[in-house]
Amino acid sequence: MQLWTLFLTASIPVLESFLITVLGSYLALDRVNILGQDSRKHLNTIVFYVFTPAMIAANLAETITYDSMIKLWFMPVNMLLIYIVGSIFGWILIKLTRPPPHLRGLILGCCAAGNMGNIPLIIIPAVCNESESPFGDANICATNGVAYASLSLAIGAVYLWTYVYNIIRISIKTSIQDSTHITEISSTSDHISCTKPLLSSEDKAYQFALPYSVSAGDAKMTHLGIIKEWMAMMKEKLKLKTIFAPSTIAAIVGFSIGLISPIRNLLIGEDAPLAVIDDATSLMGKATTPLLTLIIGGNLVQGLRVSGIRKSILIGIIIVKFVASPLIGILIVRGAVRFGLVSNDPLYVFALLLQFSVPPAMNMGTITQLFGQGQSECSVIMLWTYTFASLSLTFWCAIFLWLVA
């Protein structure tokens, strides 16, 4: 295929996504107010808890088998490498631009986490349906492509809520502690106040030892209590509720149905007794992509109304996501194919390469809203990165198609 033909083929899905995004932005304008802030919030909740889990569970259940699991083992590793590479570039960017402390976690997160599910869910099936697609039969290509994108979305959700969430949490907590410390020092003229105890009540609780005469049964109960407290503390530290998001649970369900033959025979296939459940789930899942794209467009409007982030930071994030990361991705994926770690399936290789070129994850805005800091800066980052993504994705998709064709 000629490079110009590949460029046109890659531009169609990006243009489709762009048009739906523009529609979402128009509906979110104040004079229209169909997709206002409250509407987006409620719609995002429905998509988060209903449509996205339905799409992930249905697609994984229909396409994941033991053989495909062996084939797809490299995708979680590929995404982990994306986070590592993005974090390194993000750290370099922080050293160069010296942003405020509360924005360091946001910058690291934007450089590391990408839109691993929504963008591939739009682009891959659309490329499969193009007449010049190098991926063969359109139906088989679309089915496998949606499975790759669904797995990408599920794994991306786990990485996002375990790594990025805690990076931003630590960054904001550190900035608050630093500002509090500076305030305490500035309010003290010639002496240091010692009114604050060195240990909190929780720290002191661990300083008390058990009496020497405690019975064995009481000691056992005490140890059980300590273990329960430790488990509760670890649960709070790890934020298991955010790790096991609905999309993660849906991925577990989809994997279970696909890998356990008796359950798969009950639900999957035209002759399956409970095939209607799978059909209903798939029907709900098909609404995910257009709704998410509309929400993205509506959220971008907020970026037009706020400012407060330096241009050097924006330019740095754009260079990391759309120049450095795709180039590193080509080296990693092509190297994995060369050494036999990845099968030379053009669609699978294309999906792995695409993961390196997507814009920052839209859930970055959700995380900043949870902590109440960095929302306006995140909106500006999302606005400009997704604006550049319309051109960058077209270019890189054409290059990736040329590499795998």
TrEMBL record:
GO CC list: endoplasmic reticulum membrane
Coiled-coil annotated spans: none
Database matches in InterPro entries: Mem_transp_PIN-like (IPR004776), PILS1/3/4/5/7 (IPR045033)
Subcellular location field: Endoplasmic reticulum membrane
Keywords annotated in UniProt: Auxin signaling pathway, Endoplasmic reticulum, Membrane, Transmembrane, Transmembrane helix, Transport
GO term, biological process aspect, one: auxin-activated signaling pathway
Regions that span the bilayer: 6-29, 41-61, 73-94, 106-127, 147-168, 243-263, 313-335, 347-371, 383-404
Main location (coarse class): endoplasmic reticulum
Keyword Chloroplast attached: no
Topology of the protein relative to the lipid bilayer: Multi-pass membrane protein
Superkingdom to which the source organism belongs: Eukaryota
Biological function: Involved in cellular auxin homeostasis by regulating auxin metabolism. Regulates intracellular auxin accumulation at the endoplasmic reticulum and thus auxin availability for nuclear auxin signaling.
Family: Belongs to the auxin efflux carrier (TC 2.A.69.2) family.
Identification of the protein by name: Uncharacterized protein
Organism this protein belongs to: Rubus argutus (Southern blackberry)
